Predict the structure.
Amino acid sequence: MPHSSSSSSPPSSVSTISNLRLRALIIWSSKNYAIAAFVFLLLFSLTLFSHLDSRSRSPYPSHPRSSLVPLTLLRNANRTRALCLDGSAPGYHFQSGFGSGSRNWLLHIEGGGWCNSIASCTQRKFTHLGSSNYMEKLIPFSGILSSDPSENPDFFNWNKVKIRYCDGASFAGHPESERGSDLLFRGQVIWEAIMDELLSIGLSKAKQALLSGCSAGGLAALIHCDNFRQVLPKEATVKCLSDAGFFLDEKDISGNSTMRYFYHDVAQLQGLAKSLHKDCIAKMEPYKCLFPQEIVKNIKTPLFLVHPAYDFWQIRNILVPQGSDPLGHWQSCRLNIRNCNANMIDKLDSLQLD
C-alpha cells in the first residue's frame, strides 16, 4: 500500500516536537526543584532563627546542658591514705551550680551493698564498687541530680555531686582493721578526704546543703549526717535524706537473724565502731548500732526517710534470704511479690511490723 502523507506527520516533524516537549519538561522540572529548594531553605532558616531566639530568651542561657558528667579522682588520695579496697583513688562526679543555686549543694552517695569477708571484699575490688579502675568515666545525671527544671524543679541548678562507693562498708571502715591484708578498709578516711576536697571548691560557702544516698549510700548518709552538718557554715541550712536505706533488724522466715550476722561480720571486719555514735556503742554491740533504727535515735540534723512499701532487696536478703527456705516454697514469692499468696503476704507483714 502506498504511503499517505495526510494520515501522519513526517518523521522530522515528530522528532522536533518530541525534543521541544523534552526541553520544556526539563525546564519545568528544574524550576520545580529550584522552587522546592528555595522553600525548604526558607523554612529551615525560619526554624533555625526561631530556635536561636528561644534560646536567647532562656533564663539560663549560659548553662551547659551536658548529659554526661566526668569522673573526678580524689586529688590527694595517696597523701591522705584515702583509697578504695584495691588501693586506687576514690572518685566523684561534680556539676557546678548556676543562677540562684550557685551556693547550694546536693551530695548523693552511691549505693551497692557491703562486703563482710576477705573473700567477698576481694571479689568486690575487681568491680566499680571496690576500685575506681572499673568506674564509668562519664555518667548521666538524672532524677534528683538532673539539670532539667521540669524533671528536678527543686535542685536542677544546685552544685551536684555523686560520690562513688568503693569501700564496701558505707564509708565507715578504718585502716586499723586491715591487719596486713592486701585489702584497704578506708571508708571513714575516704569520707573525710572527699569532704575536705569539696569544701575547698565551694562547699564551705554553702547556703543550703542536702546530703542524700540510696541503699548502702542511704545508710552512709545516716552515719555521716551530723558530721556533714558540723563541717558546713553554722548559718547554712543543712538536711539529710536516706532513700531505701532503712534496713530492718528482723529475723527471717526460718527464725534466724541473718542480717544481724551479716552486719556483725561487716562491722568486725572493717572496724566500724569508731564511725558509729558513741552513746549507742556504750549500750550495745557495734553491729547493732549499724541498723538505722538505732542510728536515727541520735541524729540531730533534720532528716528525711524515703522507703518503698515493697523493698525487694530486703525481702530477698533479710526476710527470705538464701538458705531460709530449703524446700523452695518461697522461691517464686521472693523473686516477685505478685507470686506470693495471702499467707505469705501476712507472714512478710508480720515480720516487718514486729
Q: What stands out?
A: The longest strand covers residues 208-214. Residues 1-31, 33-65 have pLDDT under 50 and may be disordered. The chain has twelve helices and eight strands. Residues 312-353 form one domain.
